[in-house]
Amino acid sequence: MYSRAYKTIIAMPPLLWVCLFLLLPYTLMFGHSFWLVRDGGLVHEWNLQNYRALFSNPLYFQVFLRTARIAAAVMLCSLLLGYPLAYYLSFHAGPRKEVLYQLVIVPLWVSYLVRGYAWKTILGSDGVLNGLLQYLRVTREPVSFFLYSPFAVVLMLTHIYTPFVFLPIYAALEHIPRTLVEASQDLGADRRATFLCVILPLSVPGLLAGATFAFVLSLGDFLAPLLVGGPSATMVANIVQSLFGAAYDWPLGAAISVCILLTTVALLFTTERLEKRWSFR
Amino acid sequence: MSDGAISPRPARAPFSTLLEIRGIAKRFGRAEVLKNISLQIAAGEFLTLLGESGSGKTTLLRLIAGFEQPTSGEIWMGQERLDTLPPYKRRVNTVFQNYALFPHLNVRDNVAYGLRVKSTPQTEIGGRVEEALRMVKMSSFANARPSTLSGGQQQRIALARALINRPQLLLLDEPLSALDANLRKQMQSELKALQREIGIAFLFVTHDQEEAMALSDRIALLRNGALEQIASPREIYSRPATAYTAEFIGQTNVLHGEVQNGLVRCGPLQWKIAHAGGSVILSLRPEAIRLVDDALRFPDAVRFRGAIRQQIYSGASELLEIDCGGNLTLRARVPPSGPLTGEREFVFSAAAAIPVNESSAVAPAGKLDQEPA
């Protein structure tokens, strides 16, 4: 057994880290959300004004709804791309599996910002896509709605988060014993029935984990709307950013952040419960 | 081919053929796993594929189930060619070595799976599931999850699940190998009883020769992907075709003899033999050798003296290792007779030394423990 002193020493650094960089900021944020700004200065006066403003002003609700819609769209798109990809790799790729797996992973090593700017150059009015369309004489004028739209945000975020969706699904599929697939076929189920009755249900934990990744990460994203979104695709995180920056209303920004945090925690808690219910090993 | 109920059956086949394997070969890359296997399975028969690991027995089973494609050859079931069909269209079912129960379904849904995917009417499913569970004595576990069941119980569910489709042929891939010894014996007898009761053919894969002997109507012994011998347990034991068979099925003494003038000579021993001249390989079962004071008389008795080198007591009998001189060591299985030492006189019937084929006589000699791994 280890001595008490040894355990304390070992536990200290992570505990300090958690206190300093997680607990303290969250406490500050939580505290700020109940204060106010008056005459350009922070007033430490406990009140619920920020939350009241949040729930009474339909503008905030609108942005929150849009954010949720974009996050849901990203989740759906990356599931639609990630699941078939993971399924193909796990069950049908054969010897190409390793190479394809690396190809999926490699983009994760490229900076988020670089990928964002890449989409900007692709989608812009004098960008790659418009150039191609005009060259092919599909369009005469540059199409402007590619960039600076919710569509562009969904596209970029889907591109970025698909590997995050792919990975847990792939791991779940790889864990399915192949004899179960054989047993299913042996009992008379064709490929479709085997997929629906055995593979899909057994991959639900991975699917939930992937969907949670995509949704939660998109929910808090502020770079994609900033780079390719434009005003019509402003998301909650952009509001928070401006409140903490130019608008200088930290208390309101903190109140919004607390709401996002609570939503996220509730989501993670729910999916964790669901994942447990769907795991059988 | 199936000869049907009306047409007269040929004398050589006193049963109707259910499944016929014709010249099946299977390669994985450069490895030749099965070499030109041909065999027939009769309706209602319990046929065991016996062999060491790597002998190709599981591969043969998987070819019949449809999980592997043969490199060449054909598999026929009645008038239907099986090897070109996907597994889900074959009217055979498999009991897997690790049971392969669906972890997300309870026992009832596991058993019902085969009926559900074939869109059997819901009203029929309930009754048939109950019947299948009753057959394997697991009715009270219908709502349990597979992970909460013991190995033996999972085995029963796997059996019920495979049998609910009413296949004519059930494939069993080492189904008892994961069970402990006692449970295994019990499941063996239950399996045999069940097979008799429902009357469908079982193709059973095992590496355990005792299990094969206890259960089978016929045993097909595979060796390095080729069929070594196929015969009933009694025949394969008493008339092994090759030295390998003799050594694999039970224990034996493999004797290399020289025949001259109707006499075979093995080290210091010699006896009369009806065999052309030259060398001969003989299989002499340990239990055929007796102590002379057993007061047994054979008309063709071969007597010899030997020094007891080792005595292994196993309850119902003892195994003696006898040094007969002239570099010849024989093993004898005798009734328990207290500690034995020194030189003794032994006897066996010359007819008990069975000539076997040369071709496959490469099994390691002098092994006392014949239990295959």
Q: Number of helical runs of chain B?
A: 8
Strand order of the largest sheet of chain B: 6-7-8-3-9-10
Gap from first CA to last CA of chain A = 31 Å
Total individual domains of chain B: 2
CATH topology name of the largest domain in chain B, in short, is: Rossmann fold
Low-confidence stretches of chain B: 1-14, 360-373
Strand order of the largest sheet of chain A: 1-2
The CATH architecture of the largest domain in chain B can be named as 3-Layer(aba) Sandwich
Measured by DSSP, the beta-strand proportion of chain A falls in: under 5%
Dominant shape of chain B: elongated
Order of helices and strands of chain B: EEEHEEEHHHEHEHEEHHEEEEEEEEEE
Main sheet of chain A? 2 strands, antiparallel
Query: Which residues of chain A form runs of ≥5 with pLDDT under 50?
Result: none
CATH topology of chain A: MetI-like fold
The CATH superfamily of chain A is identified as: MetI-like
Largest interface: A-B, 20 and 26 residues
List keywords for this structure.
heterodimer; A: 281 residues; mainly alpha; MetI-like fold; two-stranded antiparallel ribbon; 13 helices; 2 strands; 2% strand; globular; B: alpha+beta; Rossmann fold; OB fold (Dihydrolipoamide Acetyltransferase, E2P); five-stranded antiparallel beta sheet; disordered N terminus; disordered C terminus
